[in-house]
Structures are given as C-alpha cells and as structure tokens.
Amino acid sequence: MYIPSQYRNENQQEIRNFLKENSFGILISQLEGKLHATHIPIELNEENEGITELSGHLSKANPQWKNFKKNEEVLAIFSGPHSYVSSSWYQQEEVPTWNYLAVHVYGSIQIMENDELHDSLKKMVDKYEQNSENPVSVDRMSEKTMRQINGIIGFKIAVREVQAVSKLSQNRNNQDYQNIVHQLEKSASIQAKALAVAMKKKRG
After folding, report:
1. If you average pLDDT over residues 63-80, what whole number do you get?
2. Dihedral of the alpha carbons of 152, 51, 132, 116, in degrees to the nearest 10
C-alpha cells in the first residue's frame, strides 16, 4: 500500500486496537491465476503479543479456500472511518481531499480444523455476544446446530507484514485542523463523526 511518510502509522498498540475494533475485513488471495476476495470477520489473536496471527472462517461453498492448503500468501484489508474533506474548510485555497484509516496485513494462510476451529469460533462468538442481553455461546449450542461447522473452512494467517495508514490532515496547520474536525462533527454522516473522533485523538 502506498503511504506517504507523514501518514504512516507504526504504533503497534494503535494498530492492534484498530484491528480489534474494525475486524470486518476483506480477505484477498489468488486461485488458478484469478484474484478472489471475501468480506468476513477476521480476528486478531489477542493471546499473542504484537500482531502475529489472524483467524477466521468462510463457507466451504466458497472456492477461495482451495488454495489455503498450499500455505498461500494472502492480503487482509481492514477499513476504518473515512470522509471527504472540503477545501472550503481551509484558510487558503487548496484542493479537496479524503481522510481515512486503514490497515493491510500480509501473511501465509493455513486451514484450521477440529478443536482449533472450535476454539476460534468460540472466541469470536464470545467477543460479539458479550454485550447481548441474552448472550449465546458455542459451548451451549446443541450437537445438531454445531453440525453446521461442517459447512465452513477455518483459517489462520501467520502475519508477515503490517501496513497502517492514518491520513488525518496531519499536513494542515492547527487552525485548519481544528476547523476540519468541527465540520466533520457537524456532518450527518456517522463515518465523518467517527473520523472527527480519530482526529481529536491524533492532535488533541
């Protein structure tokens, strides 16, 4: 991913938090010379320090998994809040731009089976059920329901490289910066408001 130096994020804790909060990603790989992409939750292994492993699953009916047995190189893309930034928000004439947060993770992929897959599913369900009024658990599901596992392919990605971009108008002076935040906060867009929060964290 092309990242101008002023927008490159190398803060590992920030990237870890981003991956946990924006885990619905895009898994990209090649199969028979053709690119395949699937939109799925891809979870960070929080038991390991740093960013060393991701995991997830997809439908067995999806042919993308057929090259996973070869320990193929894959790319997982995670997107955060983003928004158009009008140059009318600057003190001086300038071109408009787009602010955004994103992370690309490269690594080799392997298939997970049996207990490893079960544990991965349990962790994912527990994560998203923790705030439910009546949380469900993989451990409490019936044998009949759990047979549906036979219809999915679990995978884990050994992370080789992480690229993170935080394009948040770092090149603007403080007055422009604060006005961009103000304008984003006024927007009806949820994405714009979330981006304003990220910009406040970046520069206060």
Report:
1. 92
2. 40
CATH number at residue 74: 2.30.110.10
Q: How far apart are CA 92 and CA 85, in angstroms?
A: 14
What is the distance between the alpha carbons of residues 196 and 177, in angstroms, rounded to a whole number?
A: 10
DSSP code per residue over 111-166: EE-HHHHHHHHHHHHHHHHTT-SS---GGGS-HHHHGGGGGEEEEEEEEEEEEEEE
Instruction: Report how many domains make up the chain.
Output: 1
For 5-38, write each residue's pLDDT tens digit: 999 999 999 999 999 999 999 999 999 889 999 9
Tokens 């409490």, located at residue: 140
**CA distances for 123 relative to 9, 55, 79, 119, 183, angstroms:** 28, 10, 22, 6, 39
Domain range for 157 is 5-171
Task: Output the pTM of the full model.
Answer: 0.93
The one-letter amino acid at 168 = L
- Alpha-carbon gap, residue 29 to 19, rounded angstroms: 19
